[in-house]
Specification:
mainly alpha, globular, 22 helices, 56% helix
């Protein structure tokens, strides 16, 4: 039973977060809504980045040869339509840097050879020997084994393409939308900068040195899968051989975008989900090793890619996502502000009988953190406003103040825990008595005894 609870509780939480995330989406399909928002938008200097987007995209589409004209015009047309529809624009606008990076990576192969710099073959291995005392990447490739091949393939050949979507999904479900926008911006601009550096500063990877030695390189040489060729042989396929042989950027060793992406993923997960820190950086360390073991990068490439990721992570981090705000639930809600009656009245919250059970207060806080209006019908002992059974004297302080939400509406009255509510009121009666009222004062207060003079004059209160 405990195993079932351990599995079902996370699934319930993910399901609740997914329902809430879908509820937060803009489901409008009317372009007029987007145009109205565009008219009301207050332009700032930071919006000038979109001019750079348009200029760079225009350049890449102009030199693009596949698909040919006029079919390639469908790319900007379809993208413009996606921007006009509110439902799709909420995804395509933040993801603009990522699309620009993908467009740059694909279209870079159409740059005429006469405009490309000569690829460097000896610079990276020389730098590695000077900086680290040896060719570290060469040492790591001298011993290979099928188990090591699988261990390197999982993060390098699978995780690199899958984990960015997993990080985005976690941010979308469990963090404010600003966190997802920040991820798209930092991840996209980092990869775009890496591609531009590789175009301006082309360098050969270790696989080139193993195949061709230190002979000068040119752009007629096709790419190589390096150590991933062993994975193709292991699975009797040719996927990686085909993909890397047709790579648009054959001489894109520095910086390593595999290392940069893994570092960015680790930084985001550790920042927004601190309990995952040791696991995500452990994954990044394995990927660093995999890039060199599979002969795709030198150690200096890995260091350069990691530095690039760190730079973009901190340079683009918004102020509202720093510190404790990074772990806030969607919508800017703070679960700490939703306190149970046990916390409000300094009582110990009862624990469930099951080993994995949680108190109702924790359940309520989780539910309200995702804007859920009601819990499962199986929750029989729901929360109740503690003032339901506490007599309140008019024009006196109300004990419901700690439980009133920020929008000014009191929590709906529910049935259960009536004895707990009454006991809690009695426990705090002495303190409230000092403030001017008591939970027993409204029903059992004795009238003041009149003096003899007041009784004679008929001014004193009558005794019932």
């Amino acid at each position: 039973m405990s195993i079932r609870l351990a599995v079902m509780q996370p699934l319930r939480r993910v399901g609740a977060a997914f329902a809430a995330a879908v509820g937060r989406l803009d489901k409008s399909l009317s372009p007029s809504d987007t145009l109205n928002r565009l008219k009301q938008h207050k332009w700032t200097f930071s919006d000038s980045i979109y001019i750079f987007h348009i200029a760079l995209a225009t350049f890449w589409i102009t030199i693009m040869q596949v698909p040919s004209f006029p079919l390639k015009l469908l790319i900007p047309i379809l993208y413009a339509i996606a921007l006009l529809i509110p439902f799709t624009s909420q995804f395509f606008v933040p993801a603009g840097p990522i699309f620009l990076y993908l467009l740059s990576f694909f279209s870079s192969k159409f740059i005429p050879t006469e405009y490309r710099p000569t690829p460097s073959v000896v610079l990276l291995p020389t730098l590695e020997s000077v900086l680290y005392g040896a060719n570290v990447s060469d040492i790591l490739t001298r011993f290979t084994h099928p188990i090591l091949d699988i261990l390197a393939w999982v993060p390098y050949g699978v995780g690199h393409y899958v984990i960015p979507f997993i990080v985005a999904a976690f941010l979308w479900l469990f963090r404010p939308k600003e966190a997802l926008h920040y991820w798209a911006s930092a991840f996209g601009y980092m990869n775009l900068a890496g591609v531009l550096i590789q175009l301006v500063f082309p360098c050969a990877a270790p696989w080139y040195e193993l195949i061709y030695g230190l002979t000068p390189a040119d752009y007629t040489i096709r790419g190589s899968p390096g150590g991933l060729a062993r994975i193709d042989r292991l699975f009797h396929s040719s996927g990686y051989t085909t993909a890397f042989s047709n790579s648009p950027l054959v001489f894109g060793a520095f910086p390593s975008l595999h290392a940069a992406s893994a570092t960015m993923e680790a930084l985001f997960m550790s920042h927004f989900f601190p309990h995952t820190t040791k696991w995500v950086f452990g994954y990044a360390a394995v990927l660093y090793w995999a890039t060199m073991y599979l002969t795709h990068h030198y150690l200096v490439d890995v260091v350069g890619g990691s530095c690039l990721a760190v730079a973009f992570f901190y340079l683009l981090m918004p102020e509202e996502l720093k510190g404790a705000a990074a772990t806030a639930p969607p919508g800017g809600l703070n679960t700490a502000s939703y306190r149970s009656k046990y916390e409000v009245y300094d009582l110990e919250e009862p624990r469930g009988r099951g080993r994995g059970s949680r108190g109702n207060g924790a359940i309520m806080r989780d539910a309200e953190a995702y804007d859920l209006e009601e819990l499962s019908d199986r929750e029989s002992d729901e929360e109740m406003d503690i003032t339901f059974r506490s007599p309140v004297v008019p024009d006196q302080p109300s004990s419901a103040a700690p439980l009133i939400k920020s929008n000014g509406r009191a929590s709906p009255v529910k049935k259960s825990h009536r004895h707990t509510a009454s006991i809690a009121s009695l426990i705090r009666s002495e303190e409230r008595g000092e403030e001017g009222w008591s939970p027993i004062g409204g029903s059992f207060a004795f009238p003041p005894t009149p003096t003899r003079a007041q009784a004679d004059e008929g001014k004193g209160p009558r005794a019932s």
